[in-house]
Amino acid sequence: MNSDNTDNEFAPAFERLLAECHPVRLARVALADDGQLSAAARQAWTELAQGGWLDLGREEMSEAMGGELLQLGEIAGRYLLCLPFAFGAFVVKPLQDADPDAMSRVLGGSWDQRLPVAGRVDIGEMEACAPMDYFGDGIGYLRFRVLDGAVLARRLASRQSCVQGLDAGVPVAMPVNDSASGHAEYRLTLATEQVKNILRAYLVFSYGQMIGAAAASLDLAIAYAKERIQFRKRIGEFQAVKHSLANAWVGIDNARYAARDLARSHDASAFVAKAQRLDRLAASAAKLATRVSLQVHGAIGFAWEHDAHLYLKRVYRDAAYLSRLVNRMH
Prior knowledge:
The chain is an alpha+beta fold and 330 residues long. It contains 11 helices and 9 strands. The strands form 3 sheets. The chain has a 4-stranded mixed β-sheet. Strands 2-6-5 form a 3-stranded antiparallel β-sheet, with no helix packed on it. A two-stranded antiparallel sheet has the order 8-9. A hairpin with a 2-residue loop joins strand 8 and strand 9. The longest helix has 36 residues, at 192-227. The chain is globular, with a radius of gyration of 20 Å.
């Protein structure tokens, strides 16, 4: 990718790529019947990796992206990206740059990017079996925890106990206990400022995904309200529907302001407060927008064939993970 610093350089290309290789319908079939990544999902990952998109989280790319990070996250959310792209691009990649030797030990060698690496980030002590998204047995699973300013990393066993999660397309894995995985926990050498910069980019993109999913769901509801006729009027003309849609739109827009504020702020002392403000605004707005969308659509919104329920489940899943992560910061 060309890294010249121009407005909206990356977003249009990213959207074209996802439109071609990761349409919303792929969220229903991320895993094949054998429990492994489907051929379509593998191809989408290949396009992202070979296109250089996993380098977005590297330090030298932050200036080139300018203010597009939130926009890129929203695009991923609108297409219900069901691959661990945010984790790979904004956690694994920058940590590899910061401490390549330790990350090589964690990964068991170099990451060739032909298959994704999935996992989660937590603050402080964690439960032994904190759940994470599951993408089959053939990929790596990592667990990072930020404890007293340090980053501790562990590779988990690839074979995990898989259960159906809230997300319609991606099940949840319950990893085996760390002691049974056979992999040690490594301390990465990073400065506190580096840790916060990595978390900032990861959070902005991840909350962008939540906002994008909610905005896409709201767009569906607005379009439906303009065409659905009830009592010889379009339902969008009724105040109860109109005001609900307007309130949801305002909430999403407020969340965007909070995300931009976090993305642009490099005041380390304000990082936690701004991240928690973003969580309060984005999680509540996204949940409201997807609920309103389902209500506006009526019974059709609950049908498996309709996309409205996919957005709602994705938003609630993301909010459960991100709110827990952010609210344990101090």
